[in-house]
Amino acid sequence: MNTTMKKIPDNLPEVEFVDTNTETLVSELIAGYEQTTNRTLYPADPVRAFILWLADVIIQERILINESAKQNLPRYAEGKNLDSLSEIFHNTPRLQPAAAKTTLRFYLTKTLDDDFIITDTMETTVDSEINFETTEYIIFKAGTDYADAKAVCTTVGEIGNGFMPGQINKLVSDEFLYFKKVENITETAGGSEEEQDTAYYNRMRESEESYTTAGPSGSYIYHAKSVSSQISDVSTDSPEPGIAEIRIMLHDGQLPDKELLDKVENYLSADDIRPMTDKVIVAAPNTIEFDINIKYFISREKESSTNDIKRAVSLAVENYISWQTSKMGRDINPSYFNALLMESGIKRVEITAPIFTQIPKGSVAVIREESVTFGGTEDE
Predict the structure, then answer these.
(1) H-type alpha helices, the chain
(2) Rounded distance, CA 189 to CA 183, Å?
(3) Distance (Å, rounded) from C-alpha 180 to C-alpha 170?
(4) What angle do CA 341, 343, 347 make, to 5 degrees?
(5) In what order do the strands lie in the sheet with 243-250?
(6) Are 324 and 330 in contact, with CB atoms under 8 Å apart?
C-alpha cells in the first residue's frame, strides 16, 4: 500500500500534539534538576550526560506520540489508519485492485447450421504467465464462423493492460469442438492497482459533494473517480439544459478506452446518483497537440558537467510533458517549461515550441513531436 505523504490543504495549519524540541526539553530538565538539588550542573558533569540521554529517550517517545496522534487526522493518516477514517467521509472505501478486460474472438474451422454455445469458461494467454478468461457464454450464431466474448485478466492490477489486438492468441483450456483459433480484438485496459493514499484522501474530501443528487459538479467528479483508481482527472460541463457532459482521463496523461467510458457512464446514470432530469454523457477529453523544439546552451564554466546537465535537461523535458499532459484545461505554458529547464543548470534556452495556447475545459494537451538540441557552450 502506498503511503506517500499527502499534500496538506493550504487553509489548514500544521499540527503538533507535543513539543519535540530537544533544546527546550534539555533546558527544562537541567533547570528542574538544579532547582531540586540546589546544585549547578556544569558541562562535564556526569549527571548532565545522563540528562542528555534521558532527553533523547523522551524526545523519541514524543515523536511517536505525535505520529500516532496524527493518524487520527485524515490528512496525516496512512494505510489502514486512513481506511478506518473513511466512515466519517460518507463511508468511502478505498478502491481495490481491478483486473484488465478485453474482448476475445473465437474462430471455428467451419460454419454451422445451428447456434453453437460454449458454456465453459475458456482461458487464454499472452505468454503462459498473463492469462485472460471469458466471463460470458461464447455463442456462435448459425451461419457464422466466429463469436466474441468478454474476458478478464486472471491477475489483478495494471499488469494486464496494454496488450494490442492479436497478442492474446493462445488457448490454455482444452480445445472445444471445431475450434480453430482465438485472439483479442480490443486492447486490454482497465487494470488498476489499489488506490494510493494521496488519491484516496482527495476522493474522501470530494465525497462531501455526494450527499446530494441535485447535480453539483463535485458530485459527478467524486462518483466518476469512484469507478476506478485509474482515473486521475474529471471535467464536468453542461453544454445545454439537462445534459451532463463528463470527461475523464487517466494517470500519466493516458486517455480512457471505450470499456471504461461505458462503465463510468453506467455508474453515473444510476437513479441514486444522476438527477432525474439529467442525461449523462461520458467521453474522453478533446486533445490539442503541441510540439517541443528547443536549443539549449551551457556556460563554459560548467563544461566539465556537460553530461550531467544534459541528463538534467532530459529529465526537465520529461517532467514538463508529464505536467502539461496530466490535467484537462491546463494551458500550454512555455514559461513553466523555461523555469524547469533553467533549474537543470543550463545558461540559456531558445524555445521555438511550444507557444502559449489556451486549453478549453474538457480538453487536454498531448505531445506530438519532440526536438531537444544541445547548442554548445558559451561564455557568461
Answers:
(1) 22-37, 46-70, 79-84, 197-206, 217-225, 258-268, 306-325, 334-342
(2) 15
(3) 11
(4) 70
(5) 231-237, 243-250, 279-283
(6) yes
Q: CB of 324 within 8 A of CB of 365?
A: yes
Q: What is the pLDDT of residue 1?
A: 44
Give 228's DSSP letter: -
160 neighbors 132 (Cβ within 8 angstroms): yes
| Phi-psi sector, 91: left (phi>0), alpha (psi -120 to 50), beta | left
Element (H, E) at 115: none
pLDDT in tens, 286-310: 999 999 999 999 999 999 899 999 9
How far is residue 89 CA from its own chain's centroid?
21
Query: What's the pLDDT band for 213 if we cut at 50, 70, 90?
Result: low
Determine contact, residues 187/260, Cβ cutoff 8 Å. Answer: no
354 cis-preceded (ω within 30 degrees of 0): yes
CB-based contacts of 85, cutoff 8 Å, min separation 6: 72, 74, 77, 204
Backbone φ, ψ for residue 99 (5° rounding): -95, 150
Query: What gap in Å lies between CA 184 and CA 103, rounded to an integer?
Result: 6
Across the range 214-235, mean pLDDT stands at 82
Letter string b/e over residues 233-246, b meaning 16 or more CB atoms within 10 A of that residue's CB: bbbbbeeeeeebbb
C-alpha cell at 296: 539549449
